[in-house]
Amino acid sequence: MAEKLTSKTHGQNGAQDAKGGSTSGEGLSVEYPSSENNTELKFLTSSPQDVAQVAVVMVPLPAQGHLNQLLHLSRLVSSYNIHVHYVGTIAHIQQAKIRAHGFDPLTTTNIHFHEFQTPSFETPLPNPNASNKFPNQLMPSFYATFHLRESVCALVRELLSKNLKKVVVIYDNLMNWVVQDLPEMPNTECYSFNSTSAFFSYSFLWELKGKPVLPGTEHYEDIPSVLDCFTTEFWEYLKIQEQFDGKIHCGELYNSSRVIESLYLDLMAKEYDGLKQWAIGPFNPLEPKEKSKDSNKRYESLDWLDKQERNSVIFVSFGTTTSLCDEEVKELAIGLEKSEQKFIWVLRDADKGDVFTSEVRKVQLPEGYEEKIQGRGIIVRDWAPQLEILAHNSTGGFMSHCGWNSCMESISFGVPIATWPMHSDQPRNSQLVTKYLKIGLTVRPWTRRDELVTSEMVENAVKTLMASPQGDEMRKRAADLSNAIKKSVTDGGVNCAEMDSFITHITR
Predict the structure, then answer these.
(1) For the domain 300-485, what is the CATH superfamily, name and number?
(2) Are 453 and 331 in contact (CB under 8 A)?
(3) Active-site annotation holds for 472
(4) How far apart are the first and last CA of the chain?
């Protein structure tokens, strides 16, 4: 284990209606905004005194989709007047804070950020020409988190010394190594956070069992093998984490909702009979707060959307872990142009392990392309306010890699998806969207992932989603699902009950 760690850590450091400071470990309080959509959840049976005697520690994996989910969960938990301690390396805490958006900055909560120093680690550039799209460039940063083990233990010991009744640790289920010692501490409880869908989690277990005929597996017809979705390097990392799986936690959390996938949440509960689980998503605000229209910092993409017709724009973004090669960029550009539909395209390379290191590849478009699409499309080469774009009435479709963050956000705002999965859980999330929820279509089948996505494929997918009766039906189903989700977070809704149940459980 030590040899593995040493070999990996050298180098440079560095809503609208549905659409039819740092701490270095000292625990200095940092004011942070809370979610509007879950203010209705605060009807706890626990007394305020019980709540004040509990602290929550969040331990995220240092990849944007994971950092973001646990930061949003921190906002929700802290809205109950519970102090939350969000931990990580210096670079990754800064990344999480800088990229946070979608909520009112005037609302404050009890979130304390702990930026811990780790040895330097390599930050290689992503390889857009790799045969497997999995972001192997992030692996050194994953291994660097092993050095957080002692720091997190020290933080929990410090919190316990303040005569708290309990310290609750919520950790990403890919961070088992870091929290392995915590269950042995008195008055400490650990809860595993699943950053993926229950649909994916159940399919993973189903494949490990040899794909037997089980309830719910009818939706797994032609599902890709999970073995093809990751690299060898990631499987090695996962094997290390699995040494502690099932030994360190007393419950499971999902950024999901029974409105979306009750069948698979129930099936997962049966698989782990006796282990408590809560589906308390969506974590993202359902009425994201934009910067003021008078603000100099308001995003250009939102100003442009304000001028477009309802449901007329497709948002194209492949997340923070995908890099397209030059040929893919060219075909996508031509396909969007030929579709004659309006679009916002986020064109940026995947994240490095440390996003603050300077070297970044600038993806090239065909010569004169931006002039040709002027007025009908815009290119965003920096960070884009995805929540606000998806919530905007002018956005009627989303071409996406189907990362779980993006899926939950798109479903929350009633936006159907043209799925183009790249790696990890994304191919199975695509199945959930297209075959189970029926709120999307596939740009290219996963079985043809080694083939180039042509401009014709892009053109056909965009036209179908944005300008056909089939697309209109998907949009209606997505809007209905969004409305159901919004009802679930109101007083008496299923999400409200799940969140209340979890908070009551950890403060008992």
Answers:
(1) Glycogen Phosphorylase B; (3.40.50.2000)
(2) yes
(3) no
(4) 38
Write out pLDDT tens, residues 267-282.
Answer: 999 998 889 999 999 9
- Say if residues 323 and 128 touch (Cβ distance below 8 Å): yes
- CB-based burial label for 1 (10 Å; 0-12, 13-18, 19+): exposed
458: three-class secondary structure by DSSP:
helix
State the Cα–Cα distance between residues 483 and 438, nearest whole angstrom: 16
* Annotated active-site residue in 66, 85, 114, 401: 66
Domains 49-286+487-507 and 300-485 share a fold: yes
How many helices (H) and strands (E) are present in the chain, helices listed first? Answer: 19, 14
Residues 6+ apart with CB under 8 A from 193: 69, 70, 73, 170, 171, 172, 173, 252, 253, 255
Domain boundaries, the chain: 49-286+487-507, 300-485
Annotated catalytic residue within 85, 172, 392, 425:
172
Q: Topology of domain 49-286+487-507, per CATH?
A: Rossmann fold (3.40.50)
**Interatomic CA distance for residues 465 and 458, integer angstroms:** 11
Per-residue pLDDT of 434-487, as tens digits, reads 999 999 999 999 989 999 999 999 999 999 999 999 999 999 999 999 999 999
Q: At 302, list the tokens.
A: 């939102």
Indicate the pTM of the whole model.
Answer: 0.89
- Reply yes or no on whether 66 is catalytic: yes
